[in-house]
Structure formats: C-alpha cells, structure tokens
Design goal:
This protein is α/β, with parallel strands linked by helices. Helix content is about 30%, strand content about 20%. An 8-stranded mixed beta sheet has the order 7-8-10-9-13-17-14-15, with helices on both faces. A hairpin with a 2-residue loop joins strand 20 and strand 21.
Length: about 475
C-alpha cells in the first residue's frame, strides 16, 4: 500500500504585518497591570472610562477589554501578570481575543518586546486539515522589518514546526515523511543530511531496526551535520538525539485504546530536537552541530519484535526485550552510542519516553536527567528565565540493578512497579560513555487543554530553555543578548 504524501513546510509568520510607519492608523492594544491603570485615562474618554469600570476591568491577569477610543477607533486592553518574571504566554491571548485588523502593542517599559512577539505568535498557531477552511478573523500584530526576522519570530516558527509534526495524523507522517522533513528543513539551512535505511540501517542501528521490523513503513535514521559561520573545527560540538516513533501501538504488549489514542505524538522528541536544531541554525550559533533522529513505527505483525527477544546493540551490549511497549529507549540507545563516538561537548536527547515522568511531574514539566550538575543548573535557571521550566530527577544508581537481565547484558524494563522514569534514564545511561556530558529530557509534548499561547495539541517544551542555556552548556559567550564565539 502506497504511503500518503504530506509535504510539510516551515510556516511563514502570517500573523504579523510589517509597516515602516509605527505611527500609522493601526489600532492599539495596551497592557495594564492591576493598580496601574493610568493609561486608560490617557486614551479613553470619560464615557470609555465609565464603560471600562462597568465591565469591572482593573488590569487583573487575563482580563480583556475592547472599547472605543477618543478618536473613535477601537482600543483594547489586556490585564498583565505582575512585574518581576517573564510571562510570554500571556500575550497569546491577544491572538485569540483581538478583533480582526492590524494592531500595535503598547506595553509597560519592563516588558520585553520579544516576549510580546513570541507569545502572540504562539497563540496564533492553529492546526487543521480541512478541505476548505471557513474564512475567519484575521488578526495581525504590527512589527518592524527587523523584528519580523528576529529571534522571537524564528523561535515561534521553530515551535510551529514541532507542533505541526506532532499534530499531524500518523497516516500522513510515517518514518519516511519524518526523515524527509528533517532533510528538507536542515538542508535548507546549510546542513549536510544523510537518511539511512535498509541494510545499512540494520547493520548500524540494530535496535532501531528491531523496533521497526513489525511495520510496513520501514524505519529511517536521519543524521545531520552543520557548522555555524563563526565556528571552526575546534568549536564546541553539540549532539542532539530525538525519538521519532511516528505511531506506537505498544507492539505485542499492546496498549489499550485509551493509551493508543494520542500515540501519533510519540515522535515529539524528534520534532522538538528538529525545532531546536532549526533555531540554533537560524541564529547561526558559533558551534558545530550534529542531529540524529530515529524515525520508526512500533506495530504488530508477524515480523514484529516479541517479548523476551534478545538483540545485540550498536554498542555491543545485548538487550532483552522485557516489554515491546518500551521501544523508545531502544531507538535512542543506538543513536546515543553513535553520537558518543564523535565525543561531543554535550550530548542531549529528547523523548516522549515514560508515563512515569508524567505521573511524577504532570504534562507541563519535562523531566531533566543529567550526569552534570553544571548542565542541570544552567538548564534549570534558563528554564525559569524563559518561562520554559524543567524539573530535575535523579540518575539514582541504587536502581541500576533493576534493569539487569538473566540472559542478556540488560533488559529494556524493570519488573518493579516504581521509578519508571528513573530506570528508563538509567537504561539510556548504559549507552553513554562515563566521561560524556549528557542530558536526557523526558517530555510529554502535548497540551491536554487550550491556554493562552498553548493551543490544545502538540507542543515542544524545553527547547527555549536549552537554546538559552547554550552559552553555559557549550562555553560560548553571549553579547547583547546574542550568543557569540568565545
């Protein structure tokens, strides 16, 4: 059966409009904090102020007001979070609540303009596959030409890419399509990309091949290499690895229907890694970059892997398949091994790996595992600064024996009912050399419900935190907010 084709392009920022004249007659939206509503008296007539009071608008976070200004042109107000922390997502509300038209945003001086742009763009995101979209409101934010090409907009476009991939139905996005998207996106930015399949894949990535054996849609591994314009052969090497399971049935250890429903998102790690790589490349960081995506489908068939199979990995370790639904760590293992062979300054992987991490931390907090306290501190601090938080969990060596096998070097699961996220991380650690600085991020990659800036569906938390921490993680300097070569 032929696979359906779905060409995916990185979205243009159609929610923004560039104007050379910031004093033109576009409409204005003002940010107001509780107790700081002097701006109302500046732009509203007495009747407008009375209307705002009648609507009980006081600038509380999340409040929104649409009213006629002194000149007869509509004016809007949004209640802001208290000062002191960054809250870019709050501006996603503007994309949802502003009436149709082109709007200029006027915010308090302590609000970073990039937060307004990023939040608005993230809130403007919608995913739909319709024969004919109904015409709806067209709300755009007025920006300068420089802003339209700046880091905030490219960050949003990278997040949109990840969201599009995660949201795409599995019949439209299989291993082949995911690998092809990575090829298209990364080569367009100057990377050298190889897509590996068939005999070469089975030889070099035996665990990836074993996971994908049950599907008619054959596995792929995408490997990309890139070097920033300010980088040399001696510049820091960042190696990114992503789990790209395009659909996870659980294999012979079949998931129930409720657990299988959203498994198109099981390639969220690969989507997030691809988005992070794109952001790094568009901002031309002075580093060397390698990207590896394991693109595969975990299906049931006469060829599918079976419980208690034993497979020899790229690293030479034999792995017993204790459960076919613990396939993601198998996909990552061979890729981590290969990445480590190039001795990167930092090896970082992202994966929708365990339900246990979600039980522990919920959907919004990706679990952070690392063998480097310095890396942990940098990522946690960057997460707080960027409103993109992570939470560190331990690589607790006391549980390392839980993944032992009586017939192989290790099992892909533990039979104990505890610490599932920790034991999964310990499994991955076996494929990382002891002196390698390594970060593992276990992410949910999905919003269960819609919130400002975060529509329901696929998402890529942690990529902004990782990007912001690159200066510390890779020992490069940041000048005027831009990372430069040291």
């Amino acid at each position: 059966m032929a696979e359906k084709k779905q060409k995916l392009h990185v979205r243009a920022a159609e929610c923004l409009v560039v104007t050379a004249d910031s004093a033109s007659e576009e409409r204005f939206v003002y940010g107001v904090r509780a107790g700081e509503d002097a701006v109302l008296s500046e732009v509203l007539s007495k009747e407008g102020i009375a209307f705002a009071h009648a609507c009980d608008f006081s600038g509380k976070p999340g409040q929104f007001l649409n009213v006629q200004g002194k000149n007869g042109v509509p004016v809007c107000f949004i209640g802001l979070e208290p000062a002191g922390q960054r809250h870019p997502y709050q501006f996603g509300q503007l994309a949802r609540d502003l009436p149709s038209g082109d709007w200029q945003a006027k915010m308090p001086d302590d609000i970073e303009r990039d937060d307004v742009l990023l939040g608005f763009c993230l809130g403007a995101y919608r995913y739909a596959l319709k024969v004919k979209d109904k015409p709806g409101q067209k709300t755009r934010l007025v920006v300068t030409k420089e802003e339209s090409k700046g880091q905030a907009v490219e960050t949003a476009r990278s997040v949109w890419l990840a969201r599009d991939l995660i949201n795409m139905p599995a019949n439209l996005l299989g291993p082949k399509q995911l690998a092809q998207t990575a090829y298209d996106v990364l080569t367009s930015l100057g990377a050298e990309v190889d897509v590996i399949k068939g005999k070469e894949l089975r030889k070099n990535y035996p665990l990836v091949a074993h996971v994908g054996e049950g599907s008619e849609r054959r596995p792929r591994v995408a490997v990309a290499r890139w070097q920033g314009s300010g980088a040399s052969k001696k510049s820091p090497l960042l190696s990114l690895v992503g789990k790209g399971v395009c659909f996870d049935s659980g294999g012979y250890d079949l998931k129930p229907s409720s657990g299988m429903l959203r498994m198109k998102k099981d390639m969220g790690g690969a989507a997030s890694v691809l988005a992070l790589a794109r952001l790094i490349m568009t901002q031309d960081l002075p580093i060397r970059l390698e990207v590896r995506l394991g693109c595969v489908e975990n299906s049931v068939s006469g060829r599918a892997m079976r419980p208690l199979d034993v497979v020899k990995s790229r690293a030479g370790l034999t792995v017993e398949i204790g459960n076919t639904d613990a396939e993601g760590r198998l996909v990552l293992a061979d890729l981590l091994t290969e990445a480590g062979e190039h001795q990167p300054d930092l090896l970082l992987n992202m994966a929708t790996l365990t339900g246990a991490a979600r039980v522990a931390l919920g959907p919004d907090l990706p679990a952070l595992f690392t063998n480097s306290d310095k890396a942990a501190q940098a990522l946690l601090e960057a997460g707080q600064q960027q409103a993109d938080p992570l939470w560190r969990l331990p690589l607790w060596q006391g549980y390392a024996g839980w993944i032992n096998s009586s017939v192989a070097d290790l099992s892909n699961i533990t039979y104990k009912p505890h610490a599932g996220a920790v034991t999964a991380a310990l499994f991955l650690e076996r494929f990382v050399t002891p002196d390698q600085k390594w970060v593992h991020i276990d992410t949910y990659a999905w919003n269960d419900s819609a919130r400002p800036g975060r529509p329901e569906g696929g998402d890529s938390p942690a990529i902004r935190a990782v990007f912001a921490a690159c200066d510390v993680l890779l020992n490069i300097t940041k000048k005027n907010g831009i990372i430069k070569k040291m």
